[in-house]
Fold:
Amino acid sequence: MHRPEGDIYQRSGHVLVDSRVMQLVIRRYRPSDKDTVLSLFSVTTLGLIQPCFKMAILSPLYIAITLALCVAGYLLGALLGAVVLPGAWVGLIYCCCHAIYSGYLRNKLKTDMQDIPGNFLSRPDDCYWVAEAEVEGNAKIVGMVAVVGKQSGDEQYGELFRMSVSPTCRRMGIGVRLTETVFDFCKERGFSAVVLSTSSPTQAAVALYKKLGFSLVPYDNKSSAYSWILMLARVTVFRMKKQL
Structure:
């Protein structure tokens, strides 16, 4: 069944924003949303750099490497060496974390996010939604998600993309509402499952997906041109699936 244009497919409810209960509406993307959506996508993607770096540099292995470089630097060049060697190592790890997410953002802004209607709304098996909350009488986009219908052999499934929730509106159930919207859409389309890819620094998102019934499935991303950067940043890419 082809879905008509407009806001026919939407969900409404309430969320707590700034200690007040606000109306939340999840509706289909409109072209006028583009600037806000791209800004939100940029903020949430670049926001992963810091947790990625923290997770890597505070791992037991990297703490041991940093301390070993401090000792080696001191033995080789006194106090200056004890600062320069570990500093260069920490800088390398941060650059790897930055390259992963800034590179991903640049790529997506130049490709599918440049034409959201063409890439996510041109087929009846695809859709793109935004979550709007009423804040001080004004509608504010606080989240978004997309789904693309795909087929593998005899299985038809939906792949979830672009899940983003504003940093100021997290832990309010918006991610759950957006994911449930994807579930309802995929069931209506007759898909047998929903799949997605995410990365290890998104710990809260991974926990949410597991709570909603997703499980990890085998996934090999070692062929990626950035595999060595992922390895240095200690980033793991997860593939998750939920049967409907």
